[in-house]
Every structure is written in structure tokens, then in C-alpha cells.
Task: structure prediction
Amino acid sequence: MPELKLDSQLLKDLAAETINKHIAVTGVQPKLSVTLEKNKGDGRLTIVGLWGEYILKPQHKEFSAMPETEDLTMHLAEIFGISVCNHTLLRATDGTLVYIARRFDRIKGRKIHVEDFCQLAEFLTENKYKGSYERSGKLIQQYCTNSGLDVLRYFELLVFCYLTGNNDMHLKNFSLLHLENSVVFSPAYDLLNVNLVFPKDQEEMALLLNGKKKNLKLRDFEALAIVLNIPEKVRSNIYKKFKSHNTEVLEIINASFLNEKLKKAYWDIWNKKQKIFEPLGE
Result:
């Protein structure tokens, strides 16, 4: 694991510079957009600029192991074929782990036009928790070039977020990429098991799903699938996929950088959420 030259004082200095230049990345979790460079002498990575090709997320003062939890959740998403941004954990010089992800709206210094669903819905940022997943899915149908495929990717992402205790998938956590010849649903980002790091929050979804945010049943996802014109056979295969990799999920959790207590808690959340598939039988 590469080491990142970063300690609490440098982090404070970066935060101050970020505030001065108004270039912080939005969100509750502290994060910076940075440029990294590998030192020739010791091989350590150094932050050499802001507003770069990487998103850096250090440890949170109040909620423990957020970087480790996000990295694990992103790896779990990949098990199920969910496209995610490139990501990893780095060891900072102060001994802590930080999460880093490559920005998908930057390619070799060139900026790619991205619109999050808050922008597409013409909502102010403070209204990012308003609306529904049905309406968000309609945005994909309206704007994406291959809307049928991207609607499936969106639906699978929502099922995965439910299973991993992620109740913070608001409008700014979904985006569309404007490529040269197409508009596509972006890779997933900001995937965090919120139930693990903040168990007091009892809601299961950030937006309304079939008019609800908690006590969700499979029929609520079915209602969304029908709105999005996802055929019964297709959604049945999606559910089967998400209930058939539990052994692999447990292996990935156990191989993560979480401590043993959090590993068990993460697995318990996943296991409990699997009950949503009980109406399907074996």
C-alpha cells in the first residue's frame, strides 16, 4: 500500500486553502479534490495541488472507519458487476487510512461534463433529499442514450444500496456523463454503509421508494421496476444475483480493513437485509 504524506496539520492547512478557494467537494463526509505526485526518493505520494483528478477522504472526527467502510462497500459492488469509480485506501504518514478515488469527470486534465440528478431535476442542493427514486429513474429514461441499459444499472445500484445499509443515496449521488457521442449513467460513487457508521439513523432510503423510506419490502422495489419498464424475468434474475453471493460477500468483509467488531456488524446488516428476498423462496 503506497504511503501518503498527510498528517493532521497538513489536513488543516488544506482545508483552510480549500475554504479560501471555494473548491471543497460537496457532502457531509470531509473530502478534497487533489492532485497527487509520487516522490522519486521514497516512493511516497504527496499532495501537490488542489482541484485535481482525485477525491481524498480522510478519517471523520465523529464517525469511525468511514474510509475503510466506503472502500469495502465499493469492492462489494464490484462483486455484482456494478460499475464503480477507481478507488483504494492509502496509509497516511500519521498512521491513519484515507480513501481515495479517481474522478471520472477528469481525463488527462480534460473535464467531462457531468450533471447530477439534483441539477437534472432543477433542485437546489439543499433539496437533494426531496423527490423519489421513481422520478430519478425517469430522468435516466429521458436523458440517457441507452436508457434501457442504464435503467437496469440504476435499479441494481438501488438494490445493492439497500442491502449494504446505504440510506444516503440522495439526488447528488447519481450523475450522468456527457461523452462525445452519448449520455450515460455514471459509475457509482459515495457508496457507504451508513447503518454501520451511524446506526441511530433508522431510515432505509434517502429518497422515497414507493412512497416510503423505511420498512421496505420486495414489493416496493417491484413497484419501481414496473414504473421503469423492467421485465419480470429481468428483475427476477437481479434478485437472484443479489441473494447468491453471500459467501463471497463474507470473504470480502473479512478481508477488509475494518476491525473485527465492525466486520461482524457489517455482515449482520447484510444478512438482515437479505430477508427482503424471502418472498422469492429458495
